[in-house]
What does this fold into?
Amino acid sequence: MVTSPGVTTLPDLLGPLTEELPQVIAEVVNLLREEWPDYASFLEEDPATVLETAQVAIQHLVALAERGAGQSRGAGPLAGGGSELFEEVGRVEWREGRSLATLLSAYRAGARVAWRHMSRAALRRGAAPEAIALLAEAVFVFVEDLSSASARGYVEEQLATAAERERLRVELAELLLSERADLAAVRATAAGAGWALPATAALVLVPAARGHDFFARLDPSALPVRRAEMSGAIVADPDGPGRRTRLAAALAGLGAVVGSTVSTAALPGTLRATAVAARLRHEGVLTADPVFVDEHYDALVVHDDPELLDALTAQVLAPLAAVPAGTRARLEETLTAWLSTMGDRQEVARRLHVHPQTVRYRMGRLHALYGATLDDPKTRLRLTLALCWR
It folds into this structure.
């Protein structure tokens, strides 16, 4: 550093600057009290520690100025492990829900007060202009270091909180789908995840390959369900005003299945039906987009056990076993339409795009094969179960 004979050097300023610290701190507290009362209170809680910290900061500033602040960026007063305190300040800001910009503004305001006192002291002591310029640069580097450390702590806490909250959201979804979940555990996990337990909820499932698109479209409040055998989410109050329509629009094209709307405690009971509906959607039995389970209970009852359905179908279609395959397919198609239209031959002809006389002929064949049992209500019911939900 360049100096002239008889002119105060930077080390000579250390004593005078330290002497002014109580006045600087008092002025900073008064300034903060107007716009940042929380920070003012923090400084007032432990005056001795605050003064000691300020004295160490002044020593760092002077040392930094002597080295040349411009050459010491990145190795300033907070280098070498001295940033932990200010990183923690940043973390506290995030945990308390305050803006980082507010903290950085307070730093700058405090620095302005400190520099006003420091520059006056330097001038009174006859410090060279070069020394004052170096000291000013050191102040700016110091504030930059403080701000960087607090910003780092703020962001790290933010990321840690987000990661923990996401972990708790996944854990909460698992608890809600578990029949062994304890209500107290559910409530505690929901509180930690920031998820208000709704009055009702529903499980939504999508093919694993569409999981990325699914989560991109879904309301962020939905709880992700990530299991090896399924990909989906738990959505809150899906039957609220307008929500079903919005949910249908968001899920369009994803092959999604929306389970029954139930209380959160009843969610485990919807797992099987929703999974069955997803299977039927994959197999093409259900074709709605998306599938809402509560609109297809009948199909789920029929197709819940494929082996039983196959056995029932083989049993009720036994009279057609000896019929050639092509003829049998036409008779099954006609019988299915006849059952679903309650015997309206005109409607059967319209559906099958055939002449009503063809329908009459085929039904004659069916009556010949089944005999009087085709007029039996129980037989018709069994045939309906086997044929009409294909």
